[in-house]
Structures are given as structure tokens and as C-alpha cells.
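Progress narrative, work stream C.
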Amino acid sequence: MTPEAIYTDGGVIGPNPSKLGITWAWCQVWGDSLLRSGSGVIEPADLEMETCSNNIAELMGALRGLLSVPVGWDGILYTDSKVTLHRITDSFSFKGVPQGIINRVLKIRRGRKYRVVLLAGHPTRAEMKSGCAVRNGLPVSKWNVWCDKECCRLATEFKEQRG
């Protein structure tokens, strides 16, 4: 089954920018059901960088989510990053992003049919109940919260393994 939506998130391990690395997560959703998910950790050396920023983490979540569906997918990608929204749709501002990631984003954008919707990140319980963030009027989603928790879980696990 092809998902109707992909929710994504990313985060840094420690302070931003991180010398330790970044986490990313995505989940494919149909209706109210989770179909598939993916997540991971990327260390700065993996990207030939000294540090990685939260913006790169958010972009990696969206990129990996879009790579998980067939070319020409026409669903909705949800992100809580305005920078990622612009980069994954129409911006050519990729300051600090490795060229390999830029090339993959630009390739995915060619002939895109997906739409991108900005969510409010880190909603309160009251905002989750109402479906909307008071601070900015943006929608909120349990799936974005799921991705955020997965990123936090990976960051904690990574730090514990590092000692």
C-alpha cells in the first residue's frame, strides 16, 4: 500500500551544531495507521564535516522519507522545519549542506508531485487535543511527535553507547 502521508523529523545529539551527530526519522501513514518507518544516526565524519546542524538533520529526515516511496509519489510530506520545507520544494539555499545531499534533494524535486505541509513541532498536550498550536496556528500531529520521540531515543542510545 502506498502511503498518503510521510511525517519526518530530525535532531542533533547534544548542542547545535553537534560534534557527535544527528538523528533523523520518518513514518509512512495511511489514514490513522502506521505503514512503515525508518530512522538513523549520522556522525559528522559520515558527511565529511566537523559538526552537523539541526537543519541538516531535519532535511535528512525528509530526504530519507521521500526516498522510501516510489518516484512520482503524490502524497503529503509533513515537516516541522520551515527551512526543510523550502529546501525540499523550491529553494536553492543550501548553506552548510554537503553537495551529495544537495544533489539528492534536487533529483527528488524534479517532477515532484508531493506536497509539503508545515507542522508545529513539540506540541503541548492541549495543542495535541485541539489539533493546532496556539503559538503559531499550525497543525500538530501525533506522527510528528512519534518521529521526534524516535530521534530522541536514538540520540539517548547513541550517547549511552559512547559512554
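Work stream C, second folded protein:
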Amino acid sequence: MSITGAAHWTDVFIDTNGAPYSGVKVYHYEPGGTTTERTVWTDEAATTPAANPVVGDSRGRVSFYGKGNYRLLVTTSGGSPIYDFDPV
């Protein structure tokens, strides 16, 4: 059996005080420390590309679909780095 759709990725980002990072940004790149953009999608069928970065809501929640490995650079709404997941 093979998976034909994209995998769902979601997370909620909060600071050390428990407050959400409103408008958190998740940039998606090729893995290996690169800044080569890589596509993620808004739907499981991978037909509608998402923006780069994907911007979280007021609760710090980010959600999208991807295929394969990525480097995910997470920043505050102002652009300060929070996390750098490589590879995911």
C-alpha cells in the first residue's frame, strides 16, 4: 500500500511564559541547511501550494501538508528565529 497524498504537519508555538507566538512564520526549504524553497500545500491532495512562509494564527497554530523531508525555519512574526528543524 502506498500513500498518495501529502502528510499533515501542524504545531502550536508558545513562548516560555505560555503565551502563543501570534503570527508565527514557518519557512520551508530543502533540508541540509539550505535556503532553497520547497513547496508545501494547503490540502492533502497537494494541489494548492501554500505561501512561504506559512503564517500561524493568533493562537500560534500552523498547519500545512508536505511530501518528504524539509528544513523548517520557525520565526516570530517579526522575523526572530525560534526553531530550525532540519530535517523534518
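The longest strand covers residues 7-12. No further action is required on this item.
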